[in-house]
C-alpha cells in the first residue's frame, strides 16, 4: 500500500497543475511539467486531482467544430489594412494572440469558480472531488501512474514510462479484497478517465495485454504495477 501524500499549500504548483490539465500551457512549459511529473509525486497528485475535478466539464458539453470565421472577422476589423498594408498582418496576429491569452485566463477562472462553489444536489452537473488515491509504481521503476477516484470516476495519469507498444495495450484492473480482478478499461496515452465503483483498500493494477485487452476477463499478461487505494 502506498502512503498517503499530504500536499503542502503551494499556489504556484496548484495553478500549474490546473493549467496543465486544461491544456493551456505552451509546448516548452508542458514538457517541463511532464518532466517534473516523473520525479515529483506531489505535483502528479495535484494533476490527478484536477483531472478528477475538471473531468465532468468535458462530459457536460458535446464538442462542436467552430466555423472558420477568421477571414470575415479580419475583413470587418481591418478592411483597408488587408488590401493596402501587408505590414499590418503581424500586428493583427499579435492582437489575436493577446485576445486568445485573455480568453484562456477567463476560462481558467470560470472553471475554478464553478468547482469551488457549491451546487444544487438536484443539478445534472455536480463536480465530485477525489476521495481516494494511489500511486502505482513498477518494480523496475520504468512505469509509474497516479490515480484518483471520486464520484464514480477514476482518473489515471501515466507519469513515467512509454506506451504499451504495437499490438499491445495497458489494461486497468480493480481488485476487491478476496475477489477476482475486474477490468475497468484500457489506458492509452498518458491520461484516462474510467467509470468505476471502488472503495478504500481495493487494489488497482495495470497489466500488459494484447491490443484490445484481455479476452478472458482476467489478466493474461504480466501485471506491471499495482497499489491500494487510500483516502486523500
Automatic annotation (TrEMBL):
It holds the Pfam family RskA_C. PANTHER family: ANTI-SIGMA-K FACTOR RSKA (PTHR37461). Keywords: Membrane, Transmembrane, Transmembrane helix. Residues 102-223 form the Anti-sigma K factor RskA C-terminal domain. GO terms for molecular function: sigma factor antagonist activity. It comes from the Bacteria. The chain crosses the membrane at residues 94-115. GO terms for cellular component: plasma membrane. It comes from Roseicitreum antarcticum. The lineage of its organism: Bacteria, Pseudomonadati, Pseudomonadota, Alphaproteobacteria, Rhodobacterales. This is Anti-sigma-K factor RskA. GO terms for biological process: regulation of translation.
Amino acid at each position: 500500500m502506498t502512503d498517503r501524500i499530504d500536499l503542502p499549500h503551494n499556489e504556484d504548483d496548484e495553478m500549474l497543475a490546473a493549467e496543465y490539465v486544461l491544456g493551456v500551457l505552451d509546448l516548452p512549459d508542458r514538457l517541463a511539467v511532464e518532466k517534473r511529473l516523473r520525479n515529483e509525486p506531489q505535483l502528479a497528485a495535484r494533476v490527478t486531482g484536477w483531472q478528477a475535478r475538471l473531468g465532468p466539464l468535458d462530459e457536460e458539453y458535446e464538442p462542436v467544430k467552430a466555423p472558420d470565421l477568421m477571414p470575415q472577422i479580419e475583413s470587418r476589423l481591418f478592411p483597408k489594412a488587408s488590401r493596402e498594408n501587408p505590414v499590418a498582418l503581424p500586428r493583427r496576429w499579435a492582437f489575436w494572440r493577446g485576445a486568445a491569452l485573455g480568453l484562456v485566463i477567463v476560462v481558467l477562472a470560470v472553471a475554478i469558480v464553478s468547482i469551488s462553489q457549491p451546487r444544487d444536489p438536484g443539478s445534472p452537473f455536480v463536480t465530485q472531488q477525489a476521495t481516494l488515491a494511489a500511486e502505482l509504481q513498477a518494480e523496475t521503476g520504468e512505469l509509474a501512474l497516479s490515480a484518483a477516484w471520486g464520484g464514480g470516476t477514476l482518473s489515471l495519469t501515466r507519469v513515467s514510462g512509454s506506451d504499451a507498444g504495437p499490438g499491445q495495450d495497458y489494461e486497468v484492473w480493480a481488485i476487491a479484497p478476496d475477489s477476482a480482478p475486474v477490468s475497468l478499461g484500457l489506458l492509452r496515452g498518458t491520461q484516462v478517465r474510467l467509470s468505476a465503483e471502488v472503495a478504500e483498500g481495493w487494489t488497482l493494477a495495470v497489466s500488459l495485454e494484447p491490443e484490445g485487452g484481455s479476452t478472458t476477463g482476467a489478466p493474461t499478461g504480466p501485471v506491471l504495477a499495482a497499489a491500494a487505494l487510500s483516502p486523500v
